Protein: Iron-sulfur cluster-binding protein 1
Organism: Azorhizobium caulinodans
Amino acid sequence: MLDKTDTHLEALLRRRKPGYSLEAPFYTDPDIFASDLDLIFGRHWIYVGVEPDVAEPGDAMVIDIGKTSVIITRNDDNEVRAFHNVCRHRGARVLQDYKTSVGNLVCRYHAWTYDLDGKLLFAEHMGKDFDAGCHGLKPVHIRSLEGLLFICLSDDPPADFDDMAARMAPYLAPHDLKNAKVAFESELIEPGNWKLVMENNRECYHCAGNHPELTVPLFAYGFGFAPEELDDMGRLEAQRYADLVKASHGEWESCGFPSQMIEHLDDMVTGFRTERLPLDGAGESHTGDTRAACRKLLGAINDPRHGALHFWTQPNSWHHFMSDHVVTFSAIPLDAERTLVRTKWLVHKDAVEGVDYDIANLTAVWQATNVQDAELVGLCQEGARSPAYEPGPYSPHTEMLVEKFCNWYVGRMRAQGAR
Ligand code: FES
Ligand SMILES: [Fe+2]
């Protein structure tokens, strides 16, 4: 029987049982949620959006994480920059809208005006001794990984982002995300703790029973199975899939699409995983008919049959890069029991809606899948609130990556000196 008497974070982290889901307070306790925001979301690289969100100089996007609000903008030199969304006068939010386009960043309270590099250009009535040079917007660390934008709220961001970026750039580059556009985006508030959202994303054990749309392009044996439970037919199918992955990797790699799995989910501070996987049916895309949803392919890709590149980062993102479109997801914690999932669908920037692609067809699979996942996460959240809840065992064949997510989380919390 689990000793549930000491619910201090340090004790909970110390007694975490490997191979099992976390104890209930990790999913429900507002104090642990506050520690998560501070130690995980305040000190690691957080995926927040894509360069095409701020495609032109003056485009700006606001990202809120806990009490922190960040402006991401593109300056006149075409560089993406990030600043705290806090006016250096009396602290007003400078930008209120999620996305906008500006000449300069003007605080509406007293019209202090900053340029797109955060420099204070104008502050009326401040007298001759006022030093505008000391009152620029505070910068936030930001990195673009082939167009995927990550911010770090810490003064001292994890340095191994560079290692991840060096390994990942060749995988992502062929899709040329910087020259794509956001064709559609959705916001969904999932009724569960952010860790339940991530755990749900890190396995496909639940897919066959819950995702009729998503399982059309996916292979039944693509996400693990217990070998001893397979009958002859199952064994044959599993072998066929393994052979297909091997042959596909060889073919794709020979034409410049790195495909082999790289997995550092719990042994790097900036944990990540990637692999390019074949798709079923026509083999082109995550769509209802498995065919490309956009006629104009990304970058210089000239064949839609390049499967789907999965890319995950700890603690809060997953992405699917296909030949014709990219779907990208960020999970932003709102409180202990609610998480915002932002999904963006990107196509080539020159693709024309209604001619090259249809939004409903482009987004159908993941719109449906997100809603199904939100419901599943809600079911677990309700369970975690019950006195009857206790951590349950992960499948060693289909939930290894959920385990790695939890290992990463527990390890990082401990490393940050969680109390
Ligand atoms: S608070 Fe922004 S100008 Fe006064
Ligand atoms: Fe799912």
Observations:
- The CA atoms of residues 229 and 235 lie 9 Å apart.
- The chain has nine helices and 17 strands.
- Residues 161-418 form a domain with the Naphthalene 1,2-dioxygenase Alpha Subunit; Chain A, domain 1 fold (CATH 3.90.380.10).
